[in-house]
Amino acid sequence: MNKIVAMAAKDIHILFRDKLGFFFTVFFPLMMAIFFGAMFAGLSRGPANIPIALVDQDRTSASERFIERLGQASGLAVEQIPREEALEQVRRGRTAVLVTLTPGFGAALDNPFVTTPEVEMTVDPTQFAVAGMVRGVLLEAAGAELQDLMSDPARLGAANSQNSLFFESLPPSSARDDMLTFLDLSPRVSSLIDEMGLGAATGGNQGFFGPPLEIEQTEVQAERPGPTNSYATSFAQAMLWTLIGGSVSFSMSIAIERSRGTLMRLLVAPVTARHLLAAKGLACLGATLFTSSALITLGITVFDVRPTSYPLLVLALLCGSICFCGIMMALSVIGGTEQAAAGIGWGLSLPLSMLGGGMVPLFLMPEWMQRLANISPMKWTLMAYEGAIWRGFTLNEMLLPCAVLVAIGVIAFTLGARRLRWDTG
Amino acid sequence: MLVFDHVSKSFGDLRAVDDLSFEVEAGEVFGLLGPNGAGKTTAINMAVGLLEPDEGVVRFADEAFDRNPRDAENRRSLGLAPQSIALYEQIGGADNLRFFGRLHGLRGSDLEERVVACLDFADLTDVEKKVVSKYSGGMKRRLNLAVAIIHDPELVLLDEPTVGVDPQSRNAIFERVEQLRDAGKQVVYTTHYMEEAQRLCDRVAIIDRGRLMALDTVPALIGAHGGPGNLVVRTGEGESRHETTDPLGTLAELQARQAVDHFQYLPPDLETVFLNLTGRALRD
Questions:
Q1: Above 70 in pLDDT, residue A185?
Q2: Do the domain assignments include residue B278?
Q3: A336 near A357, Cβ under 8 Å?
Q4: Is any Cβ of chain A less than 8 angstroms from the Cβ of B164?
Q5: Does B101 touch chain A (CB under 8 A)?
Q6: Residues B91, B7: one domain?
Q7: All domains of chain A in start order, with CATH
Q8: CA distance to A161, B107, B132, B173, B213, per residue, from B151 (Å)
């Protein structure tokens, strides 16, 4: 037993002397715990951080009341902006959902017994999950409105008076008389409406006995270019992972060259360190460009992915590869050995991918994490890829993610190259 | 000719090389010996241009001009076989030679001629396409050496080229080094094996703590620093060892006292010189 304890103590001692091992044993899991804890803490506070754009075309006191209720009770981050701007935000992925309160919404909200209030919901097709959450919040708000109406005699009376006027305007019939008699929301209302054929007359809208809110959902591509299918988004993510894998592999290759002595042999050859670094960068650029291009080619030819702009796709591919070549160089000098390079490479890539939306959609994260995601090259890479594949970015829109990617690549490559030269020379 | 002219190099407080001067002539195998941490690797790194001296000059001197190995173009004149097997193990031996040949500017038929010559030099022609990872340790060592001379350099630096190989491969490497000398190359040879240096090196520099302790031919070093030899005799009373510079005289004296059944004279060698100059204390 003493021998086992002694050996175990030795291993623990060695582990804690090994800074890299200590990092992956203690700090990395801690980082993961903090990341997911922060993310799910954001979720547990409800969907307050889900940004939705809202357009009020009704502009009545009822619609304003509904918007206020959405903002207070539902916890959505509601931003009222012009419809065109809102559509643009959805298309660019900045907002998951656009809710439009169409004309007549307020009147229906105040008197839902005949006509159910309707809203239009335009969604980013990659964010169906959040669309479902928003749908639930809208129904909840409409249900609360109905409950308020039923418990407010003044408003209910006003609605009944309005309904009485409506039914009185109909041709005399026993059914109309009954309706007028039982307008106090009797369960018979529904069957009487059916008997009079008013269900068909109102377009199948069942009024009070239907759902408290009708939601007409459309996807953004109905008006703008969008993904032809789900592969359009999944291939963008796959291309991102190709870049990550390529950069980690190349960073390992430099570490392997160093540990096996071939790096020394290369530096002794009649080439400058600058040539050597350029060759490494070029190889990484070529490999990542080739693999990501091959992936999207497969997506286009086999999976019916239809990029909205091929020139911008080429630009996005190039900028993504430049970025990850720089990252490769930085990783290669951080990790002195191939094991260290691989460990650090994946250890950094995974949390940055999570932070950048490579695994979990950004909208599910707390706002501070979404802001923090700007430091993740993965976020900008995905934005550039999706911009060219299905978001229909213009050249101007593409400039920001591409500029960020190139800047990250150049800075990382420069820092890595300077450190590599020092390291070997 | 490789010239170290009062060269010093420090890393922080550590004086790795301290006022080191020597020259390596064409057609010479120059041994660079020293205990661990003596400064051999720092000296090699300065010779190949990876490090710049703090003081002094390292240069390739010829009749026309002096060339600094820090200048990448001048490195065409040198070849390095690192102590580690610095090869790409996923590709074949010939492809390794081709790759490094291209780096040194060889192209077309010139390159192919050199590849064939180097494969023959390393006795690897039959396995030229086999991936290096499948080679034996000795084959890798020979290829490691062959890659260093793919571009036919004037100066070849061999950093412990026989580590971890069997006697046959070691002997083969010795023969290759002798071929290089016969071809007029300058060969700098570092090793911990004194018998290798004694066999191969025309001159030997022994350095310790960065300083040059002695530099001369092996016989001259032994004469100057080897001290007396040892006469080992066995008599009826057992075996005894006697330090002497006159083995015949000492043997005669011993025989005069008692019958000697067996004797053996152990002259001083390079290892004796090395230990006398660098001490017997362990170096970590």
A1: no
A2: no
A3: no
A4: no
A5: no
A6: yes
A7: 2-41+226-419 (no CATH), 50-219 (3.40.1710.10)
A8: 103, 11, 20, 19, 34
Q: What is the extent of the structural domain holding B251?
A: 228-267
From chain A, pick out residues whose CB is under 8 angstroms from the CB of B88.
Answer: 262
* Cβ <8 Å between A270 and B147: no
Q: According to the model, what pLDDT value does residue B214 have?
A: 94
**Spatial contact of B49 and B70, defined as CB atoms under 8 Å apart:** yes
Is residue B54 domain-shared with residue B98, that is, in the same domain? yes
Asked if residue B58 and residue B165 are part of one domain, the reply reads yes
Instruction: Say yes or no: B17 and B117 in one domain.
Output: yes
Mutating which of B68, B80, B132, B154 best tests the A interface, going by the most A Cβ atoms within 10 A? B80
Distance between CA atoms of residues A34 and A40, nearest Å: 10
In a domain, B279, yes or no: no
Q: What is the mean pLDDT of residues A137-145?
A: 84
- The CATH number of the domain holding residue B152 is 3.40.50.300
Evaluate whether A96 touches A140 at the Cβ level (below 8 Å): no
Phi-psi region of A92 (alpha: psi -120 to 50; beta: other; left: phi over 0): alpha
Q: How many helices (H) and strands (E) does chain B have?
A: 9, 13
Say how far apart CA A248 and CA A237 lie, in whole Å: 17
Q: For residue A25, is pLDDT > 70? A: no
Placement of tokens 């350029």 in the chain: A278
Whether residue B192 is contained in a domain is answered as yes
pLDDT digits (tens, 9 = 90+) for B1-45: 889 999 999 999 999 999 999 999 999 999 999 998 889 989 998
Determine, yes or no, domain membership for B33.
yes
**DSSP letter, residue A172:** P
Report the domain count for chain B.
2
Grouping H, G, I as helix, E, B as strand and the rest as coil, residue A192 is helix
Distance CA A35, CA B216 (A): 67
B77 and chain A in contact, CB less than 8 A: no
Q: Which residue, of B195, B222, B249, is where some domain finishes?
A: B222
Q: Going by DSSP bridges, is the β-strand pair A51-56/B186-190 parallel, antiparallel, or unpaired?
A: unpaired
Least confident of A98-102, A205-209, A373-377: A205-209
